[in-house]
């Protein structure tokens, strides 16, 4: 894993989060979508922490699996079962990071974001179910042992 790319990805996530915070705090998005923002600065900061944490977890997880990642839920023949790094704590840290970031957005923004969060969450549940089925078929007992060790 290229450490330069990891630093770039985390730096990019920080910059994007700060820009979003500034736009939310100054309410620059209001003229575009007429979103309702959290009135409390502490609630907004909590949401931003979730967004940043989720992005960082998702980016790190994606970088960690590098060549083992595929947009399909079916692993390729040359893929290996990754059980180290963030995958030693949670089976789907990339999805977990995305859900965490979406939850942060739902906290910051009222209205339609909550529905988008719910739809994305349901979609990820279906994707996780499909992916788990394929991983179980490919790795068998090895995957079942791994599944017992970690959550989600």
Write structural notes for this entry.
The protein has one domain: Four Helix Bundle (Hemerythrin (Met), subunit A), CATH 1.20.120.1630. The chain has 152 residues and is mostly helical. The radius of gyration is 18 Å and the shape is elongated. It contains 6 helices and no strands. The two termini are 24 Å apart. Helix 1 runs antiparallel to helix 3 (41-65). The mean pLDDT is 76. It has helices at residues 3-25, 30-33, 41-65, 93-108, 112-139, 141-149.
Global shape = elongated
CATH topology: Four Helix Bundle (Hemerythrin (Met), subunit A)
State the end-to-end CA separation.
24 Å
Question: How would you sum up the major sheet?
Answer: none
Strand content: under 5%
In short:
The chain has a single domain (3-149), classed as Four Helix Bundle (Hemerythrin (Met), subunit A) (Up-down Bundle), CATH 1.20.120.1630. The chain is built from six helices and no strands. The protein has helices at 3-25, 30-33, 41-65, 93-108, 112-139, 141-149.
Q: Topology, pairings included?
A:
Blueprint: H1 3-25, H2 30-33, H3 41-65, H4 93-108, H5 112-139, H6 141-149
Helix pairs in contact: 1-3, 3-4, 4-5, 5-6
């Amino acid at each position: 894993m290229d450490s330069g790319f990891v630093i770039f990805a985390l730096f990019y996530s920080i910059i994007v989060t700060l820009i979003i915070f500034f736009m939310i705090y100054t309410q620059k998005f209001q003229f575009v979508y007429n979103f309702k923002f959290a009135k409390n600065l502490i609630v907004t900061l909590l949401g931003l922490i979730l967004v940043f944490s989720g992005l960082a977890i998702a980016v790190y997880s994606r970088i960690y699996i590098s060549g083992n990642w595929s947009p399909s839920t079916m692993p390729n023949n040359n893929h290996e079962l990754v059980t180290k790094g963030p995958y030693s704590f949670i089976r789907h840290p990339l999805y977990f990071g995305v859900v965490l970031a979406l939850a942060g957005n739902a906290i910051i923004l009222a209205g339609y974001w909550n529905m988008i969060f719910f739809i994305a969450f349901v979609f990820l549940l279906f994707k996780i179910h499909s992916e788990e089925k394929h991983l179980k078929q490919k790795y068998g007992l090895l995957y079942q042992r791994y599944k017992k060790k970690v959550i989600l």
